[in-house]
Amino acid sequence: xxxxxxxxxxxxxxxxxxxxxxxxxxxxxxxxxxxxxxxxxxxxxxxxxxxxxxxxxxxxxxxxxxxxxxxxxxxxxxxxxxxxxxxxxxxxxxxxxxxxxxxxxxxxxxxxxxxxxxxxxxxxxxxxxxxxxxxxxxxxxxxxxxxxxxxxxxxxxxxxxxxxxxxxxxxxxxxxxxxxxxxxxxxxxxxxxxxxxxxxxxxxxxxxxxxxxxxxxxxxxxxxxxxxxxxxxxxxxxxxxxxxxxxxxxxxxxxxxxxxxxxxxxxxxxxxxxxxxxxxxxxxxxxxxxxxxxxxxxxxxxxxxxxxxxxxxxxxxxxxxxxxxxxxxxxxxxxxxxxxxxxxxxxxxxxxxxxxxxxxxxxxxx
Length: 366
What we know:
Aspartate Aminotransferase, domain 2; Aspartate Aminotransferase, domain 1; 7-stranded mixed sheet; 3-stranded antiparallel sheet; 13 helices; 14% strand
């Protein structure tokens, strides 16, 4: 079986976990602080670690004072977590169309949905590509919106030679098991907004004020205050130890992911009935590789690939089609793209020969 995705770990991660277990302090402590410091060096801005990418988004929204009933513009074609992070704090996700060439948020459609309740926009960096961030920031500035980038796919990706997370308002990353680097589970928030960063530090620890400083010393707060609803969203030392090992390997992971994506482009870039994204894989570090099957038989082709030992995925079912998030918006383009998209295997343990097998099999079914 050629797997769609997988965790890529080795002895370094096993040794790191063993070291934490031997220290006998498994919760949030010194190891988390070190991981945050290393990530802050990586981005050139302060980074706070939490227990998932979903938690990163939710805390970023809360820390920017998004309240119950406020509206947040976001594309419907994204992982459920993006919508869940918004609704978890009582805000309302407003589903928008995507541009065909990038699957990033369609700003004209978003503009048509702005109301007096619109407080933020979440641009989703689909398949690790960020679209035109300059346009998004210009749009947000015009309408006085906070920008919380859902960069779950985009760890290491660059925009105009600058790393995503190293600039802009707020960027949220995921470190779950199959992302560009993993901490087993986990996520991070990056920003220059000191007030947002401090608030997230407190909120991730049940709202206990300044508890992070004690945790960094493997201590607990006993006499403390809480001024708002917090959550148990902190990262553990075990997760941070894995993440630190993975961060050291990122350059290798990056090179392999880009190599594989470029090979897919070489093999599939000019095939009738098939469409791929024209991304710059010298800047984009791909988490997934998505193609569009234009003939209307995506599900049939997916089943045939599965029967040949090739796993595929569908990223994603649009959220406005889910019962919990149904609205009056029809989003016909998003619905059309959803019927076409197919995600092919991509992870650092794949070989170029594996990619050739996937491409040969796919082309034989078209």
